[in-house]
Amino acid sequence: MIAAVIVVLEVLARIGVIARFVAPPPSEMATGLWKLLLSGRVQLAIEHTLAKIAIACSSAILVGIVVGVLIQRSRSLADAMSPFFTAYYAVPIYAFYPMMIAIFGVGEAPQIVIGFMLAVVAVIVNTINALDRIPRVLRKTAAVYGMSPVEAARRIYLPHAGPYLATGVKLAVSYSFIGVIGAEFIMSRIGIGHEIVFAYNNFDNEIMYPLILFVLLVAGTVNALFYAWEKRLLSRRSRS
Question: How confident is the model at residue 55 (pLDDT cuts 50, 70, 90)?
Answer without folding.
Answer: very high
